[in-house]
Amino acid sequence: MAIFLTEASKVIVQGMTGSEGQKHTTRMLASGTTVVGGVNPRKAGTSVEFPTGSGAHAASVSVSVPVFGSVAEAVAQTGADVSVIFVPPAHTKAAVVEAVDAGVPLVVIITEGVPVDDTAEFFAYAQDKGVRLIGPNCPGLISPGKSNVGIIPADITGPGKVGLVSKSGTLTYQMMYELRDFGFSTAIGIGGDPIIGTTHIDALEAFEADPDTELIVLIGEIGGDAEERAAAYIQEHVTKPVVGYVAGFTAPEGKTMGHAGAIVSGSAGTAQAKKEALEAAGVKVGKTPSETAALARELLS
């Protein structure tokens, strides 16, 4: 099993013909993702050739992916149920709204630097329409061996019994590597902006319901109260073991660190406060990513 993304997922790429879109579409195809189309009104009716082999065979095996003029056209012709967005920040809101209007149930927004006002607007719109957003400013999600949508490297780990939800992209990759011998049902990077689509709680709920996820790893960071709210949810609703890590124990007060949402004000939002809230809910929290992985390893063994 997996959450949100399975081997049956049909993916379109908004921004596929741009440099980032092409690079990551190549990676997604190589990792087994079913990419059924791209969207670019100026290049509608064309197609893009992508290598699908690996190593010495990469150039000799290719797949042709069609480009559609709109998301609605792509959905109508391919049955796509996932869209991943690689467009500049100024155009992200329009791209998300277009995907929502086309009825795509899962929209993954990789773009960094999206204005918070825009995110607030398209998030509310997506909620009203029943569409799940992941991101913005996120690495996407991967169900190893099934599908990979976004920029997460697919060769770190294979399928297994760990579910991972993380605010940080690079810490997602590190935790996948640290626990690669156990494997993952799904690893999801939710992004670190002040407003995001899918939250820790959404992922926790899905992992709790997934029969093949035996242990959940939650990675947070300083700023806001998302981790405290996740702790309260875990205490009430999660029966599976959870281990956690909170990035930012050495961050200076009042200074924005990394993600736009990672700012500490007084005692609110500190790594220590989040660690205490999670531990009060029964979560084992490591002081470093490697220590967190060791705690997970003990439970899995």
UniProtKB/TrEMBL annotation:
<dbReference type="InterPro" id="IPR036291">
    <property type="entry name" value="NAD(P)-bd_dom_sf"/>
</dbReference>
<dbReference type="InterPro" id="IPR005810">
    <property type="entry name" value="CoA_lig_alpha"/>
</dbReference>
<keyword id="KW-0436">Ligase</keyword>
<dbReference type="Pfam" id="PF00549">
    <property type="entry name" value="Ligase_CoA"/>
</dbReference>
<keyword id="KW-0816">Tricarboxylic acid cycle</keyword>
<comment type="subunit">
    <text>Heterotetramer of two alpha and two beta subunits.</text>
</comment>
<feature type="binding site">
    <location>
        <position position="43"/>
    </location>
    <ligand>
        <name>CoA</name>
    </ligand>
</feature>
<feature type="binding site">
    <location>
        <begin position="110"/>
        <end position="112"/>
    </location>
    <ligand>
        <name>CoA</name>
    </ligand>
</feature>
<feature type="domain" description="CoA-binding">
    <location>
        <begin position="4"/>
        <end position="114"/>
    </location>
</feature>
<keyword id="KW-0547">Nucleotide-binding</keyword>
<comment type="function">
    <text>Succinyl-CoA synthetase functions in the citric acid cycle (TCA), coupling the hydrolysis of succinyl-CoA to the synthesis of either ATP or GTP and thus represents the only step of substrate-level phosphorylation in the TCA. The alpha subunit of the enzyme binds the substrates coenzyme A and phosphate, while succinate binding and nucleotide specificity is provided by the beta subunit.</text>
</comment>
<dbReference type="InterPro" id="IPR017440">
    <property type="entry name" value="Cit_synth/succinyl-CoA_lig_AS"/>
</dbReference>
<dbReference type="GO" id="GO:0005829">
    <property type="term" value="C:cytosol"/>
</dbReference>
<dbReference type="GO" id="GO:0000166">
    <property type="term" value="F:nucleotide binding"/>
</dbReference>
<dbReference type="InterPro" id="IPR033847">
    <property type="entry name" value="Citrt_syn/SCS-alpha_CS"/>
</dbReference>
<comment type="similarity">
    <text>Belongs to the succinate/malate CoA ligase alpha subunit family.</text>
</comment>
<feature type="binding site">
    <location>
        <begin position="17"/>
        <end position="20"/>
    </location>
    <ligand>
        <name>CoA</name>
    </ligand>
</feature>
<feature type="active site" description="Tele-phosphohistidine intermediate">
    <location>
        <position position="259"/>
    </location>
</feature>
<dbReference type="GO" id="GO:0006099">
    <property type="term" value="P:tricarboxylic acid cycle"/>
</dbReference>
<dbReference type="InterPro" id="IPR016102">
    <property type="entry name" value="Succinyl-CoA_synth-like"/>
</dbReference>
<dbReference type="GO" id="GO:0004776">
    <property type="term" value="F:succinate-CoA ligase (GDP-forming) activity"/>
</dbReference>
<dbReference type="InterPro" id="IPR005811">
    <property type="entry name" value="SUCC_ACL_C"/>
</dbReference>
<dbReference type="GO" id="GO:0004775">
    <property type="term" value="F:succinate-CoA ligase (ADP-forming) activity"/>
</dbReference>
<dbReference type="Pfam" id="PF02629">
    <property type="entry name" value="CoA_binding"/>
</dbReference>
<comment type="pathway">
    <text>Carbohydrate metabolism; tricarboxylic acid cycle; succinate from succinyl-CoA (ligase route): step 1/1.</text>
</comment>
<feature type="binding site">
    <location>
        <position position="173"/>
    </location>
    <ligand>
        <name>substrate</name>
    </ligand>
</feature>
<protein>
    <recommendedName>
        <fullName>Succinate--CoA ligase [ADP-forming] subunit alpha</fullName>
        <ecNumber>6.2.1.5</ecNumber>
    </recommendedName>
</protein>
<dbReference type="GO" id="GO:0009361">
    <property type="term" value="C:succinate-CoA ligase complex (ADP-forming)"/>
</dbReference>
<dbReference type="InterPro" id="IPR003781">
    <property type="entry name" value="CoA-bd"/>
</dbReference>
